[in-house]
Design goal:
With 374 residues, the chain is an alpha/beta fold. 48% of the residues are buried. Helix 2 runs parallel beside helix 8. A hairpin with a 6-residue loop joins strand 6 and strand 7. The chain starts with 11 loop residues before the first helix and ends with a helix. The protein folds into 2 domains: 233 residues, Aspartate Aminotransferase, domain 2 (3-Layer(aba) Sandwich), CATH 3.40.640; 128 residues, Aspartate Aminotransferase, domain 1 (Alpha-Beta Complex), CATH 3.90.1150.10. It has 12 helices and 12 strands. The chain is globular. The structure holds pyridoxal-5'-phosphate. The site of pyridoxal-5'-phosphate (PLP) has 14 residues, from helix 3 and helix 4.
């Protein structure tokens, strides 16, 4: 593809930082990890961050650390990345898919309330596409029903929820929160993730579980069966430079979203993402439009691909995936809002360094593709 869907933004500073680590003997569990974790905690104004090998690993460890397991129900969106459901399955708990709000594409608090049963233990709140979920309403529900909140902020680093001086970064609301650093995310370490924790006991358990259940006393002292979910020093060095540039990164992405909204405003019946929402600061992860109801998305994608323009279809509902549709949580489940929105979404090329020219080319090609498919 001439214009990719996403592209990491690696500068000389990242290359130098990674190279510097390679000149040391510390390639794992060293000073870069400690510094990266401290920087992540400070950025989110939480006491602890535990960096891990991926966002998915972070979700797994967070669920274990919250004591969620067999017989427990966890409410999750189906309009999400599949790791959200898989992680719940991994701890033998039961995902309960709930409907989303059509504007923010996040869990609809009213639908969450309807999904609560005596076995519900947790809300797994995803800040989809970098738009903060309604943490006010969701926290009130959790409090009322004695539930824990696990935030999945993998798509939303730097997003904020709350008005004026009550605004806080997402990731600071949950009992635990997960970040992800895959190359298409706003901040990348190649592969990586982190769990944010307020409770120091949670942080200690997360550190132990990511490192084979080690206690910290000796390399062969294991308190419980754990995992190797460690992240390398190389990845942490990369992440540190990316985090130091996060304001610039988020500003570039916001500007790209703004300019797409301007370029695409004239296409009839094309629904654009809201640029602002009251009480929220969006961290732009992807740029996703909703196609007019009467056009064939596959044909649009094929036409754009012919012109060298990559597109995505975030998200295919989890409950309809071959991996999930026979599961008792998904079988005979109908989520009309999720399903109707998911059929129409189209993710356009979106990355820090997308040029005005590329955006114009995408907009013109999309306009022409829609016209020709109608
Ligand atoms: C990216 C992402 C993750 C984590 O993905 P990894 O590839 O495992 O780092 C988790 N949840 C959501 C919603 C994501 O978008």
């Amino acid at each position: 593809m001439t214009i990719p869907l996403s592209a990491p933004d690696i500068t000389e500073a990242e290359i130098e930082a990674v190279t510097a680590v390679l000149r040391t003997p510390h390639l794992s569990l060293g000073p870069e990890l400690a510094t990266f974790e401290a920087a992540l905690a400070s950025y989110h104004a939480v006491p602890n961050a535990v960096a891990v090998s991926s966002g998915t690993a972070g979700l797994h460890l967070a669920l274990l650390t919250l004591g969620i397991g067999e017989g427990d129900e966890v409410i999750i969106p189906s309009f999400a990345f599949i790791a959200v459901a898989n992680a719940v399955l991994q701890v033998r708990a039961t995902p309960v898919f709930a409907e989303i709000d059509p504007l923010t594409l996040n869990l609809d608090p009213a639908a969450v309330e309807r999904a609560i049963s005596p076995r519900t233990r947790a809300l797994l709140v995803v800040h989809t596409f970098g738009v903060p979920a309604d943490m006010g309403a969701l926290r009130a529900i959790a409090q009322q029903h004695g539930l824990v909140i696990l935030e999945d902020a993998c798509e939303a680093i730097g997003a904020e929820f709350g008005h004026a001086h009550h605004a806080r970064r997402v990731g600071s609301f949950g009992d635990l929160s997960v970040l992800g650093f895959y190359p298409n995310k706003q901040l990348t370490t190649g592969e990586g993730g982190a769990v944010l924790a307020c409770d120091p006991a949670h942080a200690a358990r997360l550190r132990s579980l990511r490192n084979q259940g080690r206690t910290g006393t000796g390399w062969l002292d294991h308190a419980e069966p754990g995992y190797n979910y460690r992240i390398s020093e190389i990845a942490c060095a990369l992440g540190l430079v990316q985090l130091s540039r996060i304001d610039e990164i988020l500003a570039l992405r916001r500007a790209a979203a703004q300019s797409y909204n301007g370029l695409l405003a004239t296409i009839p019946a094309l629904e654009l993402p809201p640029l602002t929402l009251p009480g929220r600061v969006i961290s732009w992860f992807v740029y996703v439009v909703r196609l007019p109801k009467n056009v064939d998305r596959d044909r649009i994608r094929a036409v754009l691909a012919t012109g060298g323009i990559a597109t995505g279809t975030y998200f295919a509902p989890i409950h309809l995936q071959p991996a999930w549709r026979a599961h008792p949580s998904a079988r005979s489940l109908s989520l009309p809002i999720t399903e109707s929105i998911a059929r129409r979404t189209l993710a356009l090329p979106f990355f820090n360094r997308i040029t005005a020219d590329q955006q114009r080319q995408v907009a013109a090609a999309l306009q022409e593709a829609i016209r020709s498919c109608e």
